[in-house]
Amino acid sequence: MSERFVRVARCDELRKGGGIQRTIGDREVGLFKLGNAVCAIDGICPHVGGPLGDGIVENGKVYCPLHGWPFDLRTGQCETNPNAKVDCFETKVEDGNMFVRFPK
Hints:
The chain is an all-beta fold. It has one domain: Rieske Iron-sulfur Protein. 0% of the residues lie in helices and 48% in strands. It has strands at 3-10, 19-24, 27-34, 37-42, 56-58, 61-63, 70-72, 88-89, 91-94, 97-103. A four-stranded antiparallel sheet has the order 2-3-4-8, with no helix packed on it. The chain has a three-stranded antiparallel sheet with strand order 1-10-9, with no helix packed on it. A hairpin with a 6-residue loop joins strand 6 and strand 7 (70-72).
């Protein structure tokens, strides 16, 4: 399966303590700044479909804005439910733009 990087946002669009939600093709993606890194995860909470990109970020986790489920931004694993996990995507930053690698 080939993959490609897609420009998804400008770095200055990220908000402190939170992220942004973007629709890329048929996927919802949550984008977050974690220290100097940019993280991208599946933007839909597996619990009831909350937009993870709209959640609050603390200690490397995003909390779903609907019911507070915490997901690790590096692994996608839910801290409170070992059976819940979201996809993580490779990112890169070039010239102030964020790019995410998606399956083609």
